[in-house]
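Weekly sync notes, structure subgroup
Attendees: PM, AL, DS (notes)

Item 1: joint prediction request from the bench team. They want all two components modeled as one assembly rather than separately. Inputs as received:
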Amino acid sequence: DAEITQSPRHKITETGRQVTLACHQTWNHNNMFWYRQDLGHGLRLIHYSYGVHDTNKGEVSDGYSVSRSNTEDLPLTLESAASSQTSVYFCASSATASAYEQYFGPGTRLTVT
Amino acid sequence: EDKVVQSPLSLVVHEGDTVTLNCSYEVTNFRSLLWYKQEKKAPTFLFMLTSSGIEKKSGRLSSILDKKELFSILNITATQTGDSAVYLCALQGAQKLVFGQGTRLTINP
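Output from the run, pasted for the record:
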């Protein structure tokens, strides 16, 4: 069955370290998204991609980067982790024709100490 | 800038009660409004609304959109403890979704 997975599911890192969160989908979806979820803010869009080699900044992109080298993967990199980036991160994907229905991964809980 | 505001942020009721969750929005290019339910994991899709006044219904859940007044409501009748979750409203412009803060609904037995 097609799915979307994230790894790791939990991560603790230190301030200043580079961290990469993986997102892999087997839906063959063109669109992929990264969100962070914090209390009081709901889900906020970090970066998104409409296809291979396409990346776009979302609402809260500072301190994050993504690259899309194939259809299945959109890794999210925190260049120099900060305590303000402690959050739960969700990856999602959607097909171009039915973009309203985004399928979400299980989430990664990141703690920056 | 597209904006979505949900109210209340938190709601506690007793099993069997009926609840109404609100979502108001500001948007430049409206395509659709979506409702998601999030329990202890990823959000799951509930409804997509595109037209005013047409109620979408799924069991005890229903939702309606008012594009003139720019809001949507999600109703849950005869609530059950399994309805406890965070309910998210999201606005679709182009191919992105803008989410509200969510309403945390707690159903006490």
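Discussion: The interface with chain B takes residues 31, 33, 35, 40-45, 48, 50, 58-59, 90, 94, 96, 99-102, 104-107 of chain A (CB under 8 Å).
Action: AL to compare against the crosslinking data before next sync.
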